[in-house]
Please model this.
Amino acid sequence: MIKSNPRFHRHRHLLFVIASAVMLCQWAVPAQAQPYGGRVRYRPTVTLEDLESMHALFDTDESQDMLIRSLYDGFQLAFNDGASRTKKDIAELLQQAREDPNRAEAYRRLGPLRADIEEQWASEAAELEESFFSDVKALLSEEQAESWPKYERDRRRRTLLHRSPGRYSGETVDLIRILTSLELEDEALEPVNGLVDQYAEELDRKLQEREDLAAKLRGSTATVGAAPGPGGGDNPLRTAPAAG
Model:
């Protein structure tokens, strides 16, 4: 019986927390989704945390780590160049609108023009990210590559979980990160490994559902522009988007 397992008694509180998290994921009902800032990102979407996660999950050797770091540096350079170019193009559009004698009409035209620039950069950024991960995957052995779906799932959790907190019950708590930070021995985690995997799978499904719904909303609002108010003040879009 499980009661006779001393490890269960030592970690029964952890077991309860994980079980509760799994049930919350299963019962969760999404609130009305929000586009949460659109799909345009001006900070690199691949970080050193991704590299650390790769090393930990795939147990990469030194030569693989060096090659992956080289790919990462190339991605960072290309991403930052593209983001800077995009912000510069948008800033020029805004400046032109401010200097136009008919500012109301200029700002009316600005919305679709800006949306086109941002859409082009979003597509370019997605291609850069896809190319990076494809190149990394090509460096892995067959055995290492078997864990790639788990890496993708873990990355979705890290990147999507806190993008718009509060959409699902318990969503603001990253249970996997908490468990990792505890640095428990494998033996201590044995009684809860099954529940941890179930929690991760349920959460991943919910996050993907939310992202799909948000993508539809982004598509319906992508061309919405803004014009100056009756007072003729600067348009709210007068500055390039904040990094994010």
About this structure: Residues 93 and 155 are 35 Å apart (CA to CA). DSSP finds ten helices and no strands in the chain. The chain has a mean pLDDT of 74. The first helix runs from residue 6 to 10.
